[in-house]
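Expect chain and fold; see below:
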Amino acid sequence: MDIIVVPIMAALEGIGSALAAIGVPYSLGFAIIIFTLLIKLLTAPLNAKQIKSSKAVQELQPKLQELQKKYKDNKEELAKRQMELYKEAGVNPLGGCLPTLIQFPIWIGLYQALYRLAQSGKLAEGFLWIPSLAEPKNSGWLLQNPANWDLAYVGAYIVLPILTVITQILLQKMMTPKDADPQTSSINQAMMLMPLMFGFFAIQVPSGLSLYWVTMNIFSMVQQYLMTGWGGLAPKKKAEPTQKPKETAKAEPAPKPKEAAKTEPAPAAPRPAASPKKGQVTRARKRKR
């Protein structure tokens, strides 16, 4: 293990000494932050591959669900078809585990390095509100009768464990797709126990290690946001209310035809002149004579 621990100790002491030489306060605490950033940059390509792999697997979920329904009674054929689907899509379902596996030795090495620095007294330096990065050494300061708490000590050392839990939860939420299928959702709910485990570890290890975890979580959140956005932290869009069918305009009654103007009775045809009587005709003839 010394092959990992010794270089980490040398890196932390070297960065801390350089910062102290230029007058930076809390040099060892900032050395841990800078060291964390360097580790994040070195593992960035692997982390990017992990994020892309997880996203690709999520996009294949509809097809995987179809295969599960189709071959639910034939496990061997189902496994074969799933591997063929992964191969066609160029996805390695285990690709997301590699960055995590690589970082485990770093966590262990950093813990050992900080423990040795604490034993040598080099980690007794404080950081911001934290009296000493070498404390706490166990969980007895918190897991006891609250009446016996040293409130000043608890107030100083409880902040980083709380930040560890919060940042871990936020990171896992960002890594969770918004529209995850039921199986994925149940797995993600089970994974929510991880932040609590990290929080439990954080109350019994040196604050320097908790500072590393919080810093790593924040850098990971930034990388996750740049690649996939807010993920599960993004607010869900409200379902648009179904539009009611537009009411058909009531047909207006057809206008009543205008009453035909009352036609005035046509003027009566003039009566033919009455034919002269016989007596009148004979008188007229006599006058002509």
Notes: The chain has one domain: 2-233. DSSP finds twelve helices and no strands in the chain.
